[in-house]
Each structure stands twice: as C-alpha cells, then as structure tokens.
Amino acid sequence: xxxxxxxxxxxxxxxxxxxxxxxxxxxxxxxxxxxxxxxxxxxxxxxxxxxxxxxxxxxxxxxxxxxxxxxxxxxxxxxxxxxxxxxxxxxxxxxxxxxxxxxxxxxxxxxxxxxxxxxxxxxxxxxxxxxxxxxxxxxxxxxxxxxxxxxxxxxxxxxxxxxxxxxxxxxxxxxxxxxxxxxxxxxxxxxxxxxxxxxxxxxxxxxxxxxxxxxxxxxxxxxxxxxxxxxxxxxxxxxxxxxxxxxxxxxxxxxxxxxxxxxxxxxxxxxxxxxxxxxxxxxxxxxxxxxxxxxxxxxxxxxxxxxxxxxxxxxxxxxxxxxxxxxxxxxxxxxxxxxxxxxxxxxxxxxxxxxxxxxxxxxxxxxxxxxxxxxxxxxxxxxxxxxxxxxxxxxxxxxxxxxxxxxxxxxxxxxxxxxxxxxxxxxxxxxxxxxxxxxxxxxxxxxxxxxxxxxxxxxxxxxxxxxxxxxxxxxxxxxxxxxxxxxxxxxxxxxxxxxxxxxxxxxxxxxxxxxxxxxxxxxxxxxxxxxxxxxxxxxxxxxxxxxxxxxxxxxxxxxxxxxxxxxxxxxxxxxxxxxxxxxxxxxxxxxxxxxxxxxxxxxxxxxxxxxxxxxxxxxxxxxxxxxxxxxxxxx
Length: 635
Prior knowledge:
alpha/beta
C-alpha cells in the first residue's frame, strides 16, 4: 500500500508528495538557483532608479557632471536587465518541473486504477475517474506550481523587497506593511471556504464527465430511440450545475484577490505621509523616497499572491484528497536513468525495467474449485454457492445452465477476475489469488460476454501492442490464434488484413468479428496460447457454421489429438449446446452449484436438465447444423 493511503489526513499533502519532487529534483535545483539570482537582483532597479534621481538632482545643483548622470542611467539599465535573464531560466525550469510532476501524478493515478481489485473496478465510474485524473490533477498541479514557482516569484521576491524597505527606513516599512498580517489571517480563515467550493466543483465536474461518457458511448442508441433531447436536457442540467459550482469557486478566489489587494495597497497612505515628512526633514532623499515607493508598489503588485497562493494550495489539498485513493506508489528513483530529473519530457517509470514474471512451462493447467462461494459486489444472493469442480489439465470442459445459474461468475472466478468470498480456486495446485498479475497473462486467457476492443488495428487489438501493424514480421502464435478464432476469411475481406483500422470500440467491424478478434486476443495472451483458456458465451454473435469452425480449430490445435506440448485446458461457458457433444466433459450449473456432470452421452442417457435443453435446441435445428459441419470438418 502506498504511503499516500496510510498517511494521516493531518499530514500536509505537500510532504506526502516528496517522491514526486525528487523525480524532478534537477529541474527544481536549476530553477531555484535562477530564482534566487533573480530575487537578489530584483531590488536593484528600484535602488539604482533612486540613485539616478538623486544624481540628476545633484547635477541640477552643480554637484555632479554629465558623466555621473550617464553612469547612473547605465547602471539602472544594467540592473533592470540583470533581473530578466535569471527570470527566464527560473520560469522555464520550474514550469517544466510542474508539468512533469503533473504527468507523473497522472501516470501513477492511472496505474493505481489499473491495479485495483476487480470488485472495486466493478463499481468504477469511468467519468469520475477521468475527472479526477484530468481535472483534479490540474488543480493539484496549480497548487504545487504555486509552491515551486511562487516560492521565488512571490515569497523570496517579497522578502527581498521588504528587507530593502527596512534598510531604507524601518519605521516607514513597518507602517506601510501593517496590513499584511491581516491579509494572511483572512487567507487562513477563507481557506476552508475555498477548499469546500473546490471540492464541490470537482465532484460536479466528475458527475458531468460520467454522464457525457455514457451518452457518447450510447449515442447510436439515443439516435435510434429518439432520446437525443432527453439526453441533451440531462447534460444541460449537469453543465449548469458544473458552471454554477465553478463560478462559486471563481467568485471566492477573485473576491479574496480584490480584498487582499485593497488591504495591502492601503499602506501607500503611510508611505506618502510619513515618507514626505522624512524628505521634508532631510532624513530621506527624494531619490530614497522614490526608491522606497517603487519597492512598495512592486510589493503591493505581487504581495496579494501570497494569500492567494495559500488558498490555491488549500484547493490543491482538496484535490489531492480525491486523488489519494487512486495513486499507486511512485516508481523508485533507483529505477530511473541517470540525470532523468533534468530531462524535460521524461515521465517517471517509463524507463523502469518491469519485474520479470515467473517462467511457466508451456503446458496445460489443472483448475480446481473447492467449496467456492461468491456474491457480486452489491448483490444480495450468492452467484456461486459452495461450488466444487475439478478441471483436468488438457481437457475441454463445457459448462451450461439456466439464466442466473452462475456461469459467468464461475468463469470470472476461473480467470482470476474476482476472488471468492469463501473457498479456494486453485490453478495447478496454487491459489489463484496468489498468482501475480504479471504472471497471469501467460497463464490464463479470458473472453467475456462483452468483448472490449480498442481503437487501432486488428493486430494491435489481438497483441495489445499499439505499434503492431500488418507490416510486422510474421508471428506464428498470432497466426495460430487468428486461425483458431476462425478469423482468417474475415481478414482476407478486410482492406488491410491485420492492419485494418477497426475504429473506437470496434465500430467498423461486425459483432461477430468483434467477438472473434477478442477470442484471438484471449488465445494470444502473453504472446502464446495460455495454459488455461476461459471463454464465456463466445458464440452469441456468430452463426453455427462459424461456431463449428472455432470448436474444430480449438480441438485440433489444443485438444487430445495435438502434440503434448501444445495441449491446453479449455473451459467453455455457454447456453448454446452445439459444441457440447465434442467436449471431454459437460457440467450443468444451477444456483451456483453443480447439478449434473459427465460426458455428453452420459447426460443424454440420464435424461436430466441437460438432455431436455439439448433436445429442445436440436428441434430448433441448432445442433443439427453443427453435426453437418462436424461431418465436413471431421469433428
């Protein structure tokens, strides 16, 4: 568990973010050095302006010559230029540090969500996560930017000006700066309001993002059902709430800024009143008063940023509280390249060598359910209840049952997507829950009822490699997965075969093609056919002939007729029984338990639920068609 999750809420979030500051330490050091140089020089223009004025006055009194005036003017120009060069360096390096820190936090937030247990993912609001990863990280970045940039642009800047003012006249400086503590106290009191309104705005933004995501995904359904206006009204209402919440936060921020500026500017009264008295008394020169006034004006122009900075840091703290549960531990610094903290576009962790997974032999795996019970998150009844089932290595086991029998739950338990509430699921004698995620890719291939495809090419979706194209070197394992998924004829009809772009969520291909691309991906998990293949309702969008071709391909490539080193365990969950006669074993579930099991022939002879379902489907012609294809393909 990350430090962020175990840290007390009283711990300042900036302290918790130490690892992220270390990731950009080089940029912070360079920017800080430039900031110190800039703020040491920041008082020089005002000082040399005052001296130039005094030199001009002395020239008019014939106490200085033209050379003295020219020298004073040159010194003023040099002093002005001396502040600008380090300013450029400071803003460049510290701006890069802030941007990189935001990128690193976003990366860790996404890695954290991807590592969530499946029961937590099931309750996932995609729009909510998007709002946090995008919006809350932006707010956090602004707050952190206030610290790493404004530390020099405002704090040290103000300190330099204040110290110089006290050097000119301690009493005058004390009077002029008297409103500053009042402004800082107001900032502290207003911080709770700022944090509350920021949190409200971020939550409403998350709600809007969630609805927008849902509506855009289902835009075709909304068009077909004529519900565009209803969806528009819903989005408009949330957008109005979001705008109102954002305006509330902005009003507070801007109003406080105006109050801070008014408070701090009030000190100019003392500068003119008391400073004029000192000039009249001859204890302060005209140039000295002009320099002091210039310093004060620059301070007043920047000082309101101090309480505003405090408020924005408080807003960033509120955003961090929302991000905190999502963040994974930052990658260790030791895993980064040398000098990586100085690189402008580096994201922490991308150069880290992944921990190697354990090497598993390429062979079939056994699976065992031992008194397994499981209830879906938020469910009231167990989907699987005391399930005992043994799947022999290298076998083809087909599982069926009525609606609600627990087929999909058992499939997800077998794939390790969910962990059982009670009992054990053993993969080759090992508790599946103890199998690291990095190892599961080569051990288990899974195809669910609703296959998800990504935008990109067919090859990229099967290999899950965004850079995979049709021009890559032929991959025998990928070609084998394509063949077993009966995808070859479809690829030949596509314009670029494996390199064909399928669009977002696979909108450019049919439902059956989406299902078979996902099946090929399950059969290519980890770059080779996994030891256990779990497929849940894989034939809902394909015709019976294609279904027969898939079963034929699986049995010939992975079944008992295949070489021993190529055999794999196949676990099929389906309500369509066309493929069941060719399974080594058939299991019938009901209410989360095994009701019947045996070979196809044995269950037909038993004349139970399986026999009734099979005969009913046979009367509809489903099984008869598969038998014809089986004869052609020598099933």
